[in-house]
Amino acid sequence: MKVKPKAAVYWYTLRTPKVTPLSRDLSVDVVIAGGGIAGLMCAQKLKAENKNLRIAVVESTVCGGGASGKSSGFITPDSELELSDLVKIYGPHDARRLWDFARGGVNSIRDTVSKRSLKCDFVVQDSLFIANDKKGLDKVKYEYDVHRKLGYDAWFYDKEKVEKVIGSQAYEGAVRSKETFGIVSYLFCQELKESLLRENILIFEETPVIEITNERLVTKNYAITAEKIIVCTDRFLPDFRLAEKEIYSAQTFLAVSRPLPYKVVQDLFPHGPMMVWDTDLIYQYYRIVQGNRLLLGAASLFYTYRGKEKRYAPRVLRKMQKYLKAKFPSLKIEFEYFWPGLIGVSKDFLPIIGQDPVMRNVSFIGACAGLPWAAAAGEYIAERLVHGRKDLDDMFSPERRFPINRQAQIVLSKPLSFAISHAIKKYFL
């Protein structure tokens, strides 16, 4: 008899955080709202650029308690858009600018883990973008060609070669890339928090922000006055009237299996574990994680744009089980944990980075679909504040042109506008 998996985030079972809420009014140079990867990497970069800055970070739950910490931990430049998608949409020059931006996020996370000795289940895992069918094979071949033409390393695998690295005969081909890795992002955030505290960066958890003004960040009982305020709350930016029309959310689901015998892991990945995602419209992705468990991610169009978190989705769980049976029919894998994740998205999948037009001391980051994009965005806005960096403002500004404009969005509704925009960007350009 199949046992229903726990509706809980597996990562949260690995560590109980030490929490310090805000307990007094403060005055600092910079206050950051949001203790996910974007906010913490922003704080780290600010301190590195100016050690004299007085910096505070405020988080409504715990650091890594939101989208950052719930994620799959895939650290790769790929997100909702592949490199080939970026080339089709923006052309080779701007695609390279964006890809190098994301690669910078990958490198920053790796360097942070190494230099600070963060214990976050860092595991080198190459990436495998894998074709589910003949049509997907064309996509994979194009992805490989684009990598090579732009000078990025990649390796194409035909069906026979795929069968040697993935224990399945159900895939048609793949493109492999290196210099990627996996982490438990919740542990990354908690470890980085502890390290930043030792550098005298103030970090307050379980401290929800209820109001942001030009000079103050207000919580229920106390306030922080600052010369600069940076809001890194991803899909919650609209709660503070920031990028209200430009940010929405998309929902995916993750499941983690019970610990697997070594033989099963070897059957799944005969030449060593990798991070895998496929070419389906609503794609599946998987890797081996802490405790010798299989992590599998999937979604359903039925839930993707609903806007409110669906804690348990039997439809998606059945889809996951069906997928594993089709791809790995001889393996018996039971899921122990199953949870949802809502991530902030823009209408073109690129981050939203800007400055409020009225509250000029307030800057913000959101819609960073992918941990490296969030890390890179956090560092970008820190460099923007300290050095006036603006080289990618044209790509990330909330005022840029989107497939569905604000007037049309009013008529169509926000969920439909984002769904149509994403379809246009991924499949019709």
**Spatial gap, N to C terminus:** 47 Å
Rg on CA atoms, Å: 21 Å
SSE-based structural type: alpha+beta
In terms of quaternary structure, what is this?
A: single chain
Proportion in helices: 25-40%
Q: Residue ranges: pLDDT <50 for 5 or more in a row?
A: none
Strand content: 15-25%
Please state the second-level CATH architecture of the domain at 15-70 and 186-244 and 348-428.
3-Layer(bba) Sandwich
In the CATH hierarchy, what is the superfamily of the domain at 15-70 and 186-244 and 348-428?
A: FAD/NAD(P)-binding domain
Biggest sheet details: 8 strands, mixed
Estimate the global geometry from the Cα principal axes: globular
- How many strand elements? 19
The helix count comes to 13
Mean pLDDT metric: 93
Quickly name the level 1 CATH class of the domain at 15-70 and 186-244 and 348-428: Alpha Beta
Here the CATH topology of the domain at 15-70 and 186-244 and 348-428 equals FAD/NAD(P)-binding domain
